[in-house]
Amino acid sequence: MPVGGCYGAPVSGSPVICVRDVEKSYGSGAARTQVLRKVSVEIQPGEMVALVGQSGSGKSTLLNIIGGLDQPDQGEVSVLGLNLQTASEPERARLRNESIGFVFQAFNLLDHLTCLGNVVLPAAFSQKDASHAQERGMESLRRVKMAELALRRPSELSGGQKQRVAIARALFASPSLLLCDEPTGNLDSQTGKEVIDFFRELNSKDNVTLLIVTHERRVSSIAQRVIAMRDGKIVETTDEALAEAGPS
Ligand code: ADP
Ligand code: MG
Questions:
Q1: Which of 28, 168, 246, 247 can pair with 140 through a Cys bridge, CB separation 3.0 to 4.6 Å?
Q2: Largest CA distance in the chain
Q3: What is the whole-number distance in angstroms between the Cα of residue 139 and the centre of ligand 2?
Q4: Is there an atom of ligand 1 within 6 Å of 57 CB?
Q5: At what angle are helices 159-171 and 189-206 packed, to 10 degrees?
């Protein structure tokens, strides 16, 4: 049964993410693959958590289920007080559009739109975001130092610049939770460092909760907690800050 403020109306101080006994498989019969096996995890407001593990261990699947992009077979997930199993599709869509920002390894920008067009795209799906979308889109681009290139197409940008635009898009609705799937996977190490420093600033200054799937030691070393997955299970969590020191 639900316990500890994970379900029902959001209570201040209750977990941002509550995953309980989640199971997920793909395919059927002999081709069936069990991808998540009774995964449970809680993430508190203001945490910055790294999710690590070998390729194929289920990290992206878990992240997508938390973001409401995929559904579990069993178990319960609540995000920002919304129980994703019992919520209606409009409620889930509102959560995705207004309260969660997504950043992916592959940037996922549309090349027939300008950078600004990509950033303000969420406004097309959300009443909250419809007003002053262009100005707010520019403000979002300014935050990631991409305002000058607002009218370029993504194909005219470097990888690091594309990821900045993707982050600006993720921040457009001022989400309180950012879900990132290998955000530095396609970036050189200096650009990756800049992106990570920016995440860290978002976490410490704006109190955004971050869950970051990563292979990079640099990310896991600045996270307050590291969760490791193997074969669809959580095998290890480190509660204490791994490296409070380190460059800021
Ligand atoms: P990770 O992100 O840790 O690399 P994933 O969550 O992407 O792992 O994938 C875990 C396993 O689930 C892999 O074996 C992958 O092939 C399988 N898988 C993921 N998504 C699908 C899908 N849509 N259909 C079938 N199998 C999938
Ligand atoms: Mg993955």
A1: 168
A2: 53
A3: 30
A4: yes
A5: 20
CB of 78 within 6 A of ligand 1: the answer is: no
Residue nearest to atom 1 of ligand 1 (CA): 56
Residues near 219 by beta carbon (within 8 Å), at least 6 away in sequence? 50, 184, 196, 212
Weakest mean pLDDT among 2-11, 12-21, 170-179: 2-11
Atom of ligand 1 nearest to the CA of 27: 25
Burial class of residue 223 in the structure, from the number of CB atoms within 10 Å of its CB (0-12 exposed, 13-18 middle, 19+ buried) = buried
How far, in Å, is the centroid of ligand 2 from the Cα of 192?
A: 17
Q: Which residues, in sequence order, are CB contacts of 124 under 8 Å at separation 6+? A: none
The Cα 120–Cα 140 span in angstroms is 9
Q: Locate the ligand 1 atom nearest the alpha carbon of residue 63 and give its number.
A: 6
Cα–Cα dist 193/138, whole Å: 23
Q: What confidence tens digit (pLDDT) does each residue in 27-85 have? A: 999 999 999 999 999 999 999 999 999 999 999 999 999 999 999 999 999 999 999 99
Q: How far apart are CA 231 and CA 205, in angstroms?
A: 35
- Residue 53 CA: which ligand 1 atom is closest? 3
